[in-house]
Amino acid sequence: MERPERSKDLPWLRQASSFFTARIILTANNFRIFDHLVGPGKTARLLSRSLRTDLRATELLLNSLVAIGLLEKKEEAYRNTPVASRYLVAGNPEYQGDILRHYSTLWENWSGLDTVLKTGKPLRKAHDHASFILGMHNLALLRVQTVLAHLDLRGIERVLDLGGGPGTYAMALAKKGIQVTIMDFPETLKIARRLIRRSGLSARIRLVPGDFTSDDLKNGFDLIFISQIFHAYDAAACMSMLSKSHDALNPGGTVVVQEFLLNETRTAPLWSALFAINMLVNTPGGRSYTPREMMAWMKKTGFRGASAEVLDEVVLITAKK
Ligand SMILES: C[S@@+](CC[C@H](N)C(=O)[O-])C[C@H]1O[C@@H](n2cnc3c(N)ncnc32)[C@H](O)[C@@H]1O
To answer: Which is the closest atom of ligand 1 to the Cα of 165?
Structure first.
């Protein structure tokens, strides 16, 4: 048997230490280093003074961020690369710093994976709700226009956004003149309310505090949007959500589910296979699901004509009442 060249044989060895890279980026983001390096940049000494951090540690971290490609170094000054400027400086439209803060919290829980493997139970030691919900807003802002372009909104007047989180999708729908109801936990709605008020769309968005696993949904909706929710629940809970949605829809109404795409082997794409572990660590019964699994639930709960559309890393599953 021919042995592969060693260099081709070892990507897993680098992957096993890829937490070095992750931790460096997360720590830099936690200290808002990219905000501090806007413009002409700063030396390690100046930055460590502003941040009140150790000079040697700061310089080593900055050098590693140059190696990663998020900073540039010119003589002794460090400044953001175009990518860092676009995504990691607060206030920019495509800012991703909140989701990185959420990942930094998840780190605590992922450290318990050895235990989770034995018990099968989540180990959710840490949770920062504001970073989680604002992080959802960061991610949804990258995707919302593409998703909307793939929804058939003809004749749609009233939408229920189940677990609508920060309200990113609700705001985009409201901008099109649609009345949207978001049902979510009260602590989430506090954050959503702030963002929606800032957008000037409060009149078209109704916020209903509640737990959709135990509370009834209102009714009279033309479309129910269930985005990035199923992966946190087991199959029975997802089917119960679909069943309640069926009752809450007007005749001929539409349900649309958005989830990360997982192929039928459940082993790819990589992100969805890894994300299933994120749900293992953080929820009692969640994981990533395949389009076929979700379409089967829709059929069982009375929906018809379920179809799946892949949009890059996510899939939209649509069906009719
Ligand atoms: C992963 S976020 C998705 C947010 C949004 N739908 C999106 O796609 O950007 C999940 C949301 O569901 C909400 N949620 C989870 N379980 C819920 C429940 N049982 N009742 C109400 N809201 C829930 C969370 O508060 C959070 O806002």
So the answer is: 27
